[in-house]
Design brief:
The protein is an alpha+beta fold and about 180 residues long. Helices cover about 15% and strands about 40% of the residues. It is built from 5 helices and 12 strands. A hairpin with a 5-residue loop joins strand 8 and strand 9 (about 100-115). The chain is globular, with a radius of gyration of 15 Å.
Length: about 180
């Protein structure tokens, strides 16, 4: 599975952040992206590399929300270093060649966490009504969920509640 997302300078300007230079608009494995983190009680912006190297040298780009706090590789980072990655588009191509893109007139906020200077995204079960069959989907946050997520105030259950409604709104803005 191959996935990437798009961050543009204008994405950050639309949420009031002007001091950011986007190095690559298409954020692929091992590339630099900007994430929102909580730092000294405030939301701050910081650059991170996409993916954590595993013991076998492969890049791990996502973690299952259902088991993230049980996995030794992820549990500490997930518990203490949550991050949100604003983007204007998320794209994924499956191993069978199918692909889909999520985009919205407003920003999409992808939930993740960081480990030192690297990050992974959280994934959950896909929306059953999607036109293509997928194994996992990124966990997306509403704008008003960003601060509670970063502070660790959203449970894993809350991260997946109503996400089907949010995803349907992104896929079909007329709803």
């Amino acid at each position: 599975m191959c996935h990437w997302f798009v961050q543009k300078k204008s994405d950050f300007q639309s949420i009031g952040i002007h001091a950011v230079d986007v190095i690559s608009e298409d954020i692929l494995s091992d590339e630099l992206a900007y994430g929102l983190i909580e730092y000294q009680g405030k939301i701050a912006l910081s650059p991170f590399r996409f993916g954590l190297p595993s013991f076998d040298g492969k890049m791990i780009l996502n973690a299952r929300v259902e088991t993230v706090d049980e996995k030794k590789m992820f549990s500490q980072a997930y518990r203490f270093h949550k991050a949100v990655f604003p983007c204007s588009l998320y794209h994924e191509r499956t191993s069978s060649g199918l692909s889909y893109s999520l985009s919205s007139s407003s920003l999409i906020y992808l939930a993740g966490f960081v480990d030192k200077d690297r990050f992974v995204l959280l994934t959950g079960e896909p929306v059953p009504s999607l036109p293509i069959r997928l194994k996992r989907m990124p966990i997306m946050l509403k704008q008003d969920e960003i601060r509670p997520y970063l502070k660790g105030e959203l449970s894993k259950e809350a991260l997946v509640e109503d996400k089907q409604i949010l995803l349907r709104a992104i896929l079909d803005p007329s709803r």
